[in-house]
Specification:
Layout (H helix, E strand, L loop, with lengths): L2 H13 L3 H14 L5 H8 L16 H12 L3 H11 L2 H9 L14 H13 L5 H15 L2 H9 L11 H10 L2 H5 L2 H13 L7 H23 L3 H11 L19 E4 L3 H8 L2 E6 L3 E8 L2 E5 L11 H10 L4 E12 L4 E2 L2 H4 L8 H7 L2 E11 L2 E2 L5 H11 L6 E3 L2 E4 L2 H13 L4 E6 L9 E9 L10 E9 L12 E8 L4 E8 L5 H13 L1 E2 L6 E2 L6 E3 L4 E5 L2 E5 L11 E5 L2 E5 L11 H22 L1
Parallel strand pairs: 1-12, 7-9, 15-17
Antiparallel strand pairs: 2-10, 2-11, 3-4, 3-5, 5-6, 5-7, 7-8, 11-12, 13-14, 13-18, 13-19, 14-15, 16-18, 19-22, 20-21
Helix pairs in contact: 1-2, 1-9, 2-10, 3-14, 4-6, 4-8, 5-6, 6-9, 7-8, 10-13, 12-13, 15-20
The protein binds adenosine monophosphate.
Length: 620
């Protein structure tokens, strides 16, 4: 496919704010894409050059993009910088200058998606001496051959700010829409949907539209199931392009490719948990970071909760997986936490997280050795264990994991008594742990979802919400007074709407930000800021600068209140908002789509209401 064609689709998508229209345009683009380009196009839509778990580092900042534009167009760096200050988006600047190049483009050729992708890959891979010049040359070569619109997107890709507003859910919806005709051939699905529609008494005139909508949903679910066990939407799109719907069957768990983690629900008391689960396993909740470990003979991969490859960061865990686990092929999950051998105490999250680093790995490994507490098993010796009940998975884990120096199993009890659960909870807290996670004995491993298979109970903070909220930064306000020096005074944050794949405002945060936080945040947010509201953001409040939803922060608040200005979970003219929100930490381990979502916020609001009512009754 010619890059010109892709750029004109991107242009259309950028101008569209309705998700439905966006999905239609994207579906058309993906249907048109040839076998050679589809994977590359999907990666570019995701703002990447490879699957989620593949590292992406362009090592090319604004300065170099400006230099490349200058080199390709003959305009001076000064002229380009001036325009950049005016527009705040290098994409638009590249578009303007590249459409009026001063020098004739001597070696200009028509750009294909393949060519652009190859140059970008090279840019992300070159290292060492002379790499800067080479990156510059490759970028200028693209601008040299690109039209205005093409340049807009070429400039934005290495800056990791494509501004298309396409999330993975939209890509999956588009893929599903393209399989509609084949879905309709599936007699079983057809029967299921028709039965559902008859029960709901869908009217004759709405029948076809509703049937198609439901079929697309079904297809989308099937695609998502596969994406959850195989984190590579590019590869999935390619398989669907070549083999159509039949290809889905071929996608299976593979060693080295991360599985999306299952997520925990929350409840407020031991009684509620027992009422919900009955007899259940109760495990200590360790406050470290979650890792997914894959082992195939002598080869080991370690992935973070966000599916980033972190193998090189944890040599101690890699060694332990090879030595302490005597199976050939296995995928398991656990929490890694720093531990003081002398005192027998767990270290705080702040100290544990210092192990996530690129440099000085060996020294930090000695200073803060990690322990891995394994809590789940997904794959063993060629067999998928995700479908098996938790009890069976745990039994198998007991067989393959002993009490190793580094690796052991999470501490657990099985009970159907709230008092026993509470006792175990108190014991965990007294050891400096975060609380407990209760687990449904019969549940499968539900990748990427929050179902009541796991329920967390954390220490409660008097007068505060029981749990923190993970919000996504969608904008910021420039500072007043002392804070002007940072150019950032408060943050506008949002929760995720999983139904609409958008981010809705929930709180404006000015407290909890230390000077160091402010300086750090301003540096990273400035790069993705704009004067235009991003496509996936919904907010009636207007910050001084909008930012692409990318960074997640942990927020504590006194309570959730109804609000006329915020849009999260809006009903009858009122949304939900956080009262006295304060920033606790920047959650680099979470993707924006993994932040607190609207449904959870509604649940927390309902739980809070219930507790308030109970308290009032007690005080009465
Ligand atoms: P939260 O991040 O508060 O939603 O809590 C869920 C997280 O707790 C998981 O993603 C794990 O990282 C962590 N965790 C700690 N201990 C356990 C355990 N025993 N079982 C499952 N998850 C655990």
């Amino acid at each position: 496919m010619q890059f010109k064609e892709l750029a004109s689709y991107f242009d259309l998508i950028e101008k569209t704010s309705s998700r439905l229209d966006m999905t239609k345009i994207l579906a058309e683009l993906l249907e048109k894409a040839d076998e050679e380009s589809i994977k590359k196009i999907v990666f570019l839509c995701q703002g990447r050059l490879g699957a989620n778990y593949e590292k992406l580092e362009f090592g090319l900042g604004e300065k170099m993009v400006i230099e490349a534009i200058a080199k390709a167009t003959g305009f001076t760096k000064k002229e380009i910088e001036k325009k950049f200050r005016e527009k705040g988006d290098l994409g638009l600047v590249a578009e303007e200058f590249c459409s009026q190049k001063k020098q004739s483009a001597l070696f200009s050729t028509e750009l294909t998606v393949k060519k652009v992708f190859e140059n970008l890959i090279k840019i992300s891979q070159v290292e060492g001496t002379g790499s800067k010049e080479l990156k510059l040359k490759l970028m200028a070569e693209l601008f040299n051959s690109a039209s205005g619109t093409e340049s807009r997107f070429i400039a934005r890709i290495p800056l990791e700010n494509l501004r298309l507003g396409i999330g993975d859910p939209t890509i999956m919806d588009a893929l599903a829409a393209n399989l509609l005709d084949e879905g309709k051939q599936n007699a079983e699905w057809k029967k299921e949907i028709e039965k559902e529609m008859k029960e709901k008494k869908i009217k004759e005139k709405n029948w076809i539209d509703e049937f198609d909508r439901k079929m697309k949903l079904k297809l989308r679910e099937r695609i998502e199931e596969k994406y959850n066990i195989y984190s590579d939407l590019g590869a999935i799109s390619e398989i669907l392009k070549v083999k159509r719907l039949n290809g889905l069957k071929e996608i299976q768990i593979q060693l080295g490719i991360p599985i999306r983690p299952t997520l925990a629900e929350r409840l407020n008391s031991p009684e509620e948990i027992i009422k919900k689960l009955g007899k259940c396993a109760v495990e200590s909740k360790y406050d470290g970071f979650r890792i997914q470990c894959h082992k195939e003979g002598k080869k080991v991969w370690i992935y973070s909760r966000q599916s980033e490859n972190m193998t090189s960061m944890f040599p101690d865990i890699v060694k332990a997986l090879k030595e302490e686990i005597k199976t050939e092929k296995v995928i398991l999950e656990g929490e890694a936490i720093a531990f003081n051998e002398l005192t027998g105490n767990f270290l705080s999250f702040q100290l544990t997280i210092q192990r996530k680093r690129k440099y000085g790995i060996e020294d930090k490994a000695k200073e803060f050795p990690l322990k891995l507490f394994v809590f789940d098993l997904m794959f063993l010796e060629g067999k998928n264990f995700m479908e098996k009940p938790f009890l069976e998975r745990r039994k198998k884990l007991n067989e393959i994991i002993g009490k190793g120096k580094t690796i052991s199993l999470t501490k657990t009890i099985t009970t159907d008594k709230a008092e026993k659960l509470e006792e175990f909870f108190e014991e965990s807290i007294s050891k400096g742990l975060e609380g407990i996670i209760a687990k449904d004995l019969n549940a499968k491993y539900i990748a990427g979802k929050r179902k009541f298979a796991w329920i967390k109970l954390k220490r409660s903070y008097k007068g505060e919400l029981n749990d923190s909220i993970d919000g996504v930064i969608i904008g910021y306000y420039t500072g007043k007074g002392k804070r002007t020096e940072f150019g950032l005074g408060a943050l506008l944050t949002a929760v995720y709407s999983e139904k609409e794949d958008v981010f809705k405002s929930v709180a404006k945060i000015g407290t909890g930000l230390t000077d160091k936080n402010l300086a750090e945040l301003e540096k990273i947010l400035k790069k993705i800021s704009s004067k235009k509201k991003p496509a996936r953001v919904q907010s009636e409040l207007e910050p001084d600068f909008w930012v692409e939803p990318k960074y997640v922060i942990e927020i504590r608040a006194d309570e959730i209140t109804k609000s006329p200005v915020h849009l999260a979970a809006k009903r009858e003219g009122k949304g939900l908002a956080l009262r006295f929100p304060r920033l606790i930490s920047i959650r680099t381990d979470k993707k924006p789509e993994e932040a607190t979502n609207e449904t959870e916020l509604k649940k927390m609001f309902a739980q809070q209401k219930q507790i308030n009512e109970e308290n009032q009754e007690q005080n009465y």
